């Protein structure tokens, strides 16, 4: 049928993922570092995702497409373990967590069991911080700071140190670090600042630590683009942390 449906310009899309949580029907996903429609019948064509795209990669066009199917949306959301919007009637699948509210998976309230208290034989008290610089916020650091010269750089989404218990020993130790939130900050600024940092400093390697929520992909996209824009061959690695603190494979 002829109807309005979302169109995603793959040349403009940088894979930041900000459009994913804004689609209540779950019609958009990130594949190969780009946003794509999961299926035509999941998109209602209303364009709620347009305002979330910082690259202007999403528009609404009128073309021949499969009819929007609310029942298919319900099945899709239930299969993904996501809440069904109020205008649908299917109950969400049982989950291990308690969810309150919908919208962005990165801001949805959840609760899960706390780990058991450490045994009496285990060491307690203050542990040694592995932070060797200040500041750490990407907005505040100087791209010519001496601690970046010849450094292995850790780019950290700022929720990671709270979620991952071994952050200091497993990732921060021996590295320079910058932190930011791709959901709340200007990801285009991040890309520009990191590009300048890579050009001005002799960075030996880059490790990006991000959370599993879709919007967190923006910080990795900014880092990848900055490495490419610097014209340097810098070893690059991404690690994704789950919301319960596990390293995702």
TrEMBL record:
It comes from the Bacteria. Residues 82-106 are annotated as: Disordered. Residues 85-101 have a biased composition (Basic residues). Residues 4-33, 34-63 form the 4Fe-4S ferredoxin-type domain. Pfam families: Fer4_6. Gene3D superfamilies: 3.30.70.20. PROSITE patterns: 4FE4S_FER_2. InterPro entries: 4Fe4S_Fe-S-bd, Corrinoid_activation_enz. This is 4Fe-4S ferredoxin. The lineage of its organism: Bacteria, Pseudomonadati, Thermodesulfobacteriota, Desulfuromonadia, Geobacterales.
């Amino acid at each position: 049928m002829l109807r309005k449906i979302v169109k995603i310009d793959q040349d403009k899309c940088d894979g930041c993922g900000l459009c994913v949580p804004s689609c209540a029907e779950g019609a958009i996903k990130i594949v190969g570092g780009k946003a794509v429609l999961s299926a035509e019948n999941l998109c209602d064509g209303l364009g709620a995702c347009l305002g979330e795209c910082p690259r202007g990669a999403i528009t609404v066009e009128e073309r021949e497409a499969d009819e929007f199917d609310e029942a298919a949306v319900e099945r899709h959301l239930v299969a993904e373990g996501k809440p069904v919007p109020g205008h649908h009637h299917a109950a969400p699948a049982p989950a291990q967590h308690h969810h309150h509210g919908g919208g962005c998976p990165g801001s949805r309230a959840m609760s899960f069991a706390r780990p058991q208290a450490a045994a009496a034989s285990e060491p307690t008290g203050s542990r040694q911080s592995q932070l060797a610089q200040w500041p750490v916020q990407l907005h505040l650091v100087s791209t010519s700071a001496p601690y970046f010269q010849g450094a292995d750089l850790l780019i950290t989404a700022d929720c990671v140190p709270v979620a991952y218990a071994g952050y200091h020993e497993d990732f921060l130790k021996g590295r320079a670090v910058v932190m930011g939130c791709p959901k709340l900050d200007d990801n285009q600024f991040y890309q520009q600042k990191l590009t300048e940092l890579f050009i001005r400093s002799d960075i030996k390697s880059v490790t990006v630590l991000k959370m599993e929520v879709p919007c967190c992909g923006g910080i990795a996209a900014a880092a990848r683009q900055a490495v490419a824009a610097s014209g340097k061959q810098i070893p690059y690695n991404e690690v994704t942390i789950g919301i319960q603190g596990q390293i995702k494979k």
